Amino acid sequence: RNQKPEATPNSNKFYMGLITIYDFFLVSVYIAVIFFFATRVRDKHISQNHIYKYYLPGLFAKIFGGIGVCLIYVYYYEGGDTTNYFESSVALVNLLFKNTAGFFSILSGNLGGENWSLFNQETGCPAYYMWRDAKTFALVRFLCPIVLLSFKSYLTATVLLAAISYLGVWKLYKLFCELFPLLWNEMALATLFIPSVVF
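Given the sequence above, the corresponding C-alpha cells read:
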C-alpha cells in the first residue's frame, strides 16, 4: 500500500524550493518553443499521414504528465528518487564550473573517493546511494546536459525530458499504425494517452 512518507525536519522546505515562480516562467518559454517546433513537424507530415493529428496532443499529454509527476513528488511525497536524481545532477553541473577536470573525470565514470571529495556545500552533493552504484549514477551523468539546458530548473528539465522521450513514444505509435493501419485511433489511445504512459 502506498503511503505518504514521513517528512524529515525541514525536508518540505527543501523540496518546495525545487519549484519556484522562476520555474513556471521558464517552463512557459520552453513549452512555447516546443509548441512552435512540434507544430512545424505536424504541419509538414499531416497532409501525407493522417496519424499526425495526434502528434501535438500526444506530446502535450506527455509534457503535462511529467509536470504532474514533479508536482506530486515535490508537494505530496516531499522528495524521492526523482528529486534525488535531479539534485545529484545539479551538484555535478555545479562542479563543472568549480572543477572542470573533476567533472569530466566523474562524467567518464570515475566514482572513486577522490572525486567524491570534490563536492562541498557550494556545489551540493549527489545522493550517496546513487554514487555507490555506477549503473544508478549513470543516469545522473546522462542528465547533466538536460540540467544545463534547463538552467537547473526541475520543471524545465522534466519538460525537456518529456519532449525527448516522446520521440520514442511517437515512433512506437507509428510502428503500431503500420502494423495495424485500421486501428490508428485505438493505437493512439493505447500508446499516447493511457495514464501509465503519460506519467
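Residues 154-179 form the longest helix (26 residues). Try to locate this feature in the C-alpha cell string yourself.
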